[in-house]
Design a protein that fits this description.
The chain has two domains: 58 residues, no CATH class; 73 residues, no CATH class. It is mainly beta. The chain is 12% helix and 56% strand. A hairpin with a 2-residue loop joins strand 6 and strand 7. It has two helices and ten strands; from the N terminus they run H-E-E-E-E-H-E-E-E-E-E-E. The strands form four sheets. A four-stranded antiparallel β-sheet has the order 5-8-9-10. Strands 1-4 form a two-stranded antiparallel sheet. The protein has a two-stranded antiparallel sheet with strand order 2-3.
C-alpha cells in the first residue's frame, strides 16, 4: 500500500505543471492638478490681536489676526503631480489550451492478476482461487469542448485484462 501511495504522489507531482501565459505590461502617466492648502496656527502673542489695513482710498479696515496674516491664513497653491500606473494583463494562449486537452495516466497497485481459477474436488465442493499481485495500467483522457471545457472522456486498460471507458466532469 505504501508503494501505491508513493507511486500516486509521484504521478501527481509529475503531471502538475505551470502553463505558459502571455503577459503584457502597460505603463501610463497622468498629470493631476490639485490644490495644496497650508494652514498655519496663530502665534500666542497674536491671539486676540487685530490687523489694520490702510486702503488706497484712505479708509481703514480692521480684521482679527486669527483669520488673516497679510494674506488669508488658509493659503491655497495650485500644484501639479504625475501619477504613474502599471497594469499587467495575462491571457492563456491557444497552444496552452490545446496542450491541456489530453491526459495520460499510469496507474499501479495490488489486485487480482488473472481471472478466477476453479478446481473441482467433489461433486458438491468447488475450490475457487485467484492469483494476486502487482497490477499496472494506462489511461488516456481527453477534455471535450462541452460544458465550458469541463467534460472529459477516456479509456483505461490494465495488465489483468481489465478495460474501462471513462466519463468525467472537472470541477
Amino acid at each position: 500500500m505504501k508503494t501505491f501511495i508513493l507511486f500516486t504522489m509521484f504521478l501527481v507531482s509529475f503531471a502538475s505543471y505551470a502553463g505558459d501565459k502571455v503577459c503584457s505590461e502597460q505603463t501610463g502617466a497622468e498629470e493631476v492638478t490639485g490644490k495644496l492648502e497650508i494652514n498655519t496656527d496663530v502665534p500666542k502673542y497674536l491671539r486676540g490681536a487685530t490687523i489694520t489695513v490702510h486702503l488706497a482710498d484712505g479708509r481703514e479696515t480692521t480684521v482679527p489676526a486669527e483669520k488673516f496674516k497679510v494674506v488669508p491664513r488658509k493659503q491655497q497653491y495650485l500644484t501639479t503631480r504625475t501619477e504613474r500606473s502599471k497594469v499587467t494583463n495575462c491571457t492563456v494562449t491557444e497552444t496552452e489550451l490545446v496542450l491541456r486537452r489530453n491526459r495520460v495516466t499510469a496507474l499501479g497497485g495490488r489486485g487480482t492478476q488473472h481471472g478466477v481459477e476453479t478446481t473441482t474436488t467433489t461433486p458438491t465442493e468447488v475450490d475457487i482461487s485467484s492469483k494476486t499481485g502487482f497490477v499496472g495500467g494506462l489511461q488516456y483522457q481527453r477534455v471535450l469542448p462541452v460544458l465550458h471545457d469541463r467534460l472529459s472522456v477516456g479509456v483505461q486498460g490494465q495488465t489483468n485484462r481489465t478495460g474501462s471507458i471513462l466519463l468525467g466532469i472537472d470541477f
